[in-house]
## 1
Amino acid sequence: MRGVTKAFGATVAVDAVDLDLTAGEVHALVGENGAGKSTLMRVLAGFYADYAGDIFIDGRPVRIGHPRQARALGTALVHQELSLVPELSVAENIFLGREPYSLVPGFISQRAAEAGARALCDGLGISLDPAARVLHLSVAERQLVEIAKGVSANPRVLILDEPTSSLTYQEVRELVRVVRSLAGRGRAIVYISHKLDEIFAVADHVTVLRDGRRVATAPAARWTEASLVHAMVGRDLSSLFPRSPADPGPVRLEVRDLGCRPAFRAVSFQVRGGEVVGLYGLIGSGRTALAEALFGLRAADAGEIRVDGRRVTIRAPADAISHGIALTPEDRRRRGLIPMLSLRTNLSLRALPLLCRAGFVDGGRERAEVARLIDALAIRAASQSVEVSTLSGGTQQKAVIGRWLMAPPRILILDEPTRGIDVGAKAEVHAIIDRLATEGMAVVLVSSELPEILGMSDRILVMRDGELAGEFRRGEVTEEGIMTVAAGVAAAGRPHV
């Protein structure tokens, strides 16, 4: 690609970018949200015909004006948002639009489709039932189906846009293996991700985009985490994980033998004010179910919850809120925000009773309180009235946290607070978490990202098969140690309580 430019009206999303892709290599494309990564790849995949610049395939100039043409030229794009049809089978999704026909004219051969899907999955080292309906698959399995679908057209260039945003550490390792295998068979792979550990694990070369322009391209071995972050954001980040030394106060939250079958059972732990406790586990371990039970989204059937030493009953979110417990859900768009409403309304909605005078919302006070939050959280938005769905993922996540802070809780549970946001926004969210803990809030951090768990937690709880399998203090365990406990490779005790 030479001098490729794509504008939307007066906004230039991609500005004269050069990019070389080589057969047999994984080329990582990184940058903050809005840097132009996905737009550049959608040009290559034929979604934008009105681009400027030149594209060459095998040295031959081509003009790509439609996805069908891009596929014919050997380019396949696996989208960030899964595009499978849940009601169809794995095989039907893989060959959708390219179904094999039977010997009877006009009829599709289901047997041939399933045989082709099985051969494809076996070749990739993927264990999937071709006849299984996609709606019964996990998110990780669906992502593998997407990749198999892309590979089924035998592309020379395979573009993976944020392929691991919803996967666990173990599932990411499996996906990295598949990607390296594909590159080893002579395909050029473009790998878009915000996760630096993945970039260094999978990439041969790395290109950084910032504000629509190419900043640098170099072999992955020449980059360090610090140099890559600096290239992406244009400034030095003092730390991706700015956790201050903990000064724990009294016990805010105590859980005793809590159970919610079949999700988890007999879970006991404490969280003190001023402390960040990380909660890690693989999919199905019960970590999210535990967070939801603490907030009243699930009904516990055993054990007890204590807040500030007093036993409380939590049957619904309203009960949790009344006892000073707040939760930011892992799916911020569907469960954490009201997308069609303004930033102001999303930030103030929970605290409206505090903003009312004589039964009516005091608009001036609401605007002032929202302005205070926007300033405190460094929320970047054109105005308070902007629709929250138009904001970046990082800004939306700040809004999800901010909606609890007009009337601050004593205990804040954060479920995947940095999923799908860029590295600069991650550092800012981490700084917010650190500040809240420093101010005395008890924080429970639920995350599938091990660097985040290790970097931000004062103590780490590891769940496996619905039970608490291990507990560690900051600095006494590695990523491999946590994975060993989470996967049940070896037994682990609880060295500290």
## 2
Amino acid sequence: MQEKKRNPRRSQSGGERRLTERQRAARSRQIRESRSMTKDERRQRAGAHHDIDQRQTRTGGPRVTGLIVDELGKALSTVLKLDGPADVLMSRFFRLNHKLGSRDRSIIAEAIFYTLRHLSTIAWQMKPIVPARAPRLTAMVALSRIYGREALDERTVGNDAGPLDNILRSKPENATAFVQSELPYWLYERLNKQFGDEAPALFESMKEGAPLDLRVNLLKAKREEVMQELAEHGVQAVETPMSPDGVRLMTKPGLTSWPIYREGKIDVQDEGSQLIARLVQPKRGEMVCDFCAGAGGKTLALGALMRSTGRLYAFDVNEKRLSGLTPRMRRAGLSNVHPIAIKTERDVRVKRLAGKFDRVLVDAPCSGTGTLRRNPDLRWRMSEEELARINAIQANVLESASRLVKSGGRLVYATCSLLREENQGVVEAFLAKHPEYEIMDATDVLAKQGVNLPDCAKAHAPFFVMAPHQSGTDGFFGAVLIKKEARDA
């Protein structure tokens, strides 16, 4: 073994060298593909898509090995620093750790996300021990809460048996409502005030993992065909209750390696996000702009609704993120998309297009509080100061994007936030300054496309509001604004 470490090439046959070259080529291809993936797609590949049902695993879960506990502790020591997105840090950890099999990765990934979703109650149980300073003990607490204490053998627990058992005697349900919300106090306070009696249900929904929703690319397939193909692969799926193009999976397979994905028949997109594209309601041959395109999920949905006709501009200030759109639009079969990286929302290329667009979508940068089921670390990394900074950007972006809309055109402002100050507050302030715009009822816009919202969503009219505990989607907000026809003097 030592000789192999000193000079591995001499011990390889030609066939083994060729295999290594093939593996390198495959790895290179995976890296290229990962650059065009959305966060959900990257999480699938990393192994974090295996949501573990607590009730099932308690009765028939796996025996947790010492290797899993040790490596989970190492991973938590990095992730709990909260200095970067958890999925990115996890992917890097797995990429550098060759000891772990796919099953080990699944258990570790789910335990990390469980810890982030329940960090307040875990910290409350462990007090005065700080989870980030005792990552191995934190790992055992999380694994015990998921699988039951019996999943950990005594040799693995070792000298931590006493502290671990004392910690587990503290029941999370005995903690205060604030601790059980699993939120920082500033966010708990805002959402509690905003949602009132429904706040506890909202907090509970944000502790759960999100389902995997797909949008069927109607340029290449029908929903019925995709459902049939999924069934042939043994994947349980149902039609999304609101989006006419959506499919919800009951499990989370690694779809990115399947022909149905590679051929561009489907894209990973939450049902609520699909409905944002429906609020824009683009027509064939129109000039349409996705002003904050990002990785391009909504851009692709808009392009499909336009049947790849007209011109669809995708602007974003993040050139790296925008570069991932090109391979995605090729896979989707779209030829009408024009990605353009801009320096600021006031870029000269934006100014040149003033008054040219039939429809403009402003999917504004936001706190992401509607996505905490998918991004549980975000609740701990976001701050009031960052929220104030983003809030100012939202107003500026909406102001700049509004100049692109032609007379009689449509402007849609959207976020994946639950906070009123990022949503209704921004739109109301904009309308107060711009009497040339008026608001349309989002419920009516969707109803004309065959989308029937539940009563709890209709209650927010004229705005479009989705909340996890009500709709089963991520949290979304949308407002449909119309620029009044100019009158002759």
## 3
Amino acid sequence: MAAGFLNVLKPPGMSSHDVVGQVRKIFHTKRVGHAGTLDPGAAGVLPVALGNAARLVEYMSSTDKSYRLELLLGFSTDTGDDSGKIIECVEDFTLPKREELLASLQDFLGVIQQRPPVYSAIKLQGKRAYQLARENQTVEMPLRQVTIRALRLIAFHDSRIVLDMDCSKGTYVRSFCRDFGESLKIPATMGFLLRTRVGNFHLHDAFSLEELARSGEAALLPAEKAVEHLPRFDMPEHRITAFVNGLSTGNIDFDAEESILRVYGRNRFLGMGRYEAAKRELYPIKVFREMSD
């Protein structure tokens, strides 16, 4: 069975789960997973794993992401995007000047505290937050720490602002739009959202579902593409067999106190290991035997 990652261009109007369903049909396999859910209305990069590569999806959760987003001034909604019910609207407001926008953007750079939108998949009281909201229950979303690494003003016309954002995992663009509007003292909501990057998966390399149907396995990327952001360790020849058999390897020197490593042998990806500097020991976490043959 084919194994590897696909860089899928998710279209708007389709859920991430729907994309997985389409990939299952195209590749005739049930073992498919995805990394980094995109809201149905959003488009862009959605890494999808096939076969044993699905075992590596968890390591993508820590990767940074990039977006192109549209911010709409003058109204806010219950969902935080333009698909929701308008809860505040002002028609008479002074549009900020470019210099004011740039100055306000600076306040959102770095480590910030952000309150996720009520309409989100975060679990509260054993239920998804959006389920509680739909039941008209009062929902108090806890603050969470996120990092916004870059904000670039792309376009500004009337009440529409287009930005590029680089951010950490867990960052909600809808919350950013809401909070940015509050900083300008103007209600705001998110318009379109395009995810342009997830870790090492970029928009310019992404395949639409139609292109995947034509390309088939030619579109598959190696499984280790998903973990290229993690440190690499090349296993000595005489230690390879022990590692792929699930045995820890001692007397290992690596410049880290403790780290999750991608492990190679004979320049082939063997799997993932956990290094403990105090013991100079490397412990196998996930081994890909088929790649070590």
## 4
Amino acid sequence: MEKIFEYIDEHFDNMIEELQEICKFRSVIGDEEGLDKSAKYIANKMELLDLNCKSYPIDEGNPIVFGEKTGNENKTILFYNHYDIVAEHPIDKWKYSPFKGEIHNGKIYARGVSDNKGGLFSRLHAVEAILAVKKELPINVKFLVEGDEETGSTSLYRFAKEQKETFRQMTKADLCIWENGRKDEDNNPWVRYGVRGGIGLELVCKTSNVDVHARMGSIVPNAAWRLVWALSTLKDVNERVLIDGFYDKVIPLTKEDIKVLNDFPFDEEKLRARIGNRKFIDNISGYEVKEKLYTVPTLVINGLESGEMYKSKRLINPYLASAKANFNLVANQDPDEIIDLLRKHLDKHGFEDIEIYITGKNTPVRTPIESEFTEIMRKSAQKVYDKPIVLELTALGGGPGIVFREVWPEIPIIGIGPANTGSSHHGPNENLSLDDYKESIKHIVALLYQCIKK
């Protein structure tokens, strides 16, 4: 393995140049040129590595790029990544151009370098290094790279449904390495055991056809008040969701889960200082903060809108009100069931007129901490990192993990990768540390070889 690591060190500049090149493509949804160039660049890289590569066109979506190569052992790792990115706005907050891949102070700056092009290319570069030195892979590898993750992976879900057997064969593996991972502020590499789920929605209340003067508020229903009353039935002052059955399918924590949460490094003082918060809800601290953050589902109001608040002063009784909200779900909760429970709850409380519009949904997926791959992760990381891995019960972000689990219910889904807590996902000045990127490449190499020792 040392020879492979030496190859990475010697060819690292070339690897960074390739990462810079893919980051020059503005693969934002709606930018067809940037998306097309990204998909073709990835496919070309796979072909250069002699992977069996195919791009699957998607109606009303972007191509899925798939590549695979057989190794010596009959074991398979599937890498899931995406090449679409979020828009670069606000552009005035960027210190450097978001689409040049500039390097400053040991970091590469670009939109998408961390989420998710760096994660993808660290894996491709690991395969490159192994093949360059050993001429063959220790185990089978597969790459499934989609182009619609940032907008809900609708094309991936549709592909899995319409081409069931093809998707089944594409995703057959012993382990799925999810799109990314990260290091924390103390340089500890994290290993993530699944993805959170969620539902994005909008609640709309319409009481008539036009606004009327405020003096008519005693006889004409006020949409803003009615929406507030409806919202007040969803959650109590102790932050508990009041929808019947909302918590019924939440999986109890195992002893190992509790140990992982206890051991998980979480600087609550630093978080409160950063966001200007004096105390958390119910004044919780320590273990309880981590438990609620990672294992307790909730409902959040993202914004409210009604009436005339942004122009001139008008004394009106508004006819229309809306609230954007989202459910944060945990393992075993079904978004469709939660949506149904929400509808029943509103109807039960006399709010049949409140309309629900779903803007997005993801099903949560968790991999048991007791997975046999935990020890493999530990041993492979020891060959690269100065510090031991930190187990994260689940990533706080979402993703289409359920589409893999519906086909292969037992497949472990684990996230590792080159990002860090300062990578600024979805924000200005998105970046990746060059040192972290190199270590991530080496970790993938070590992981592939560690799998044959299992």
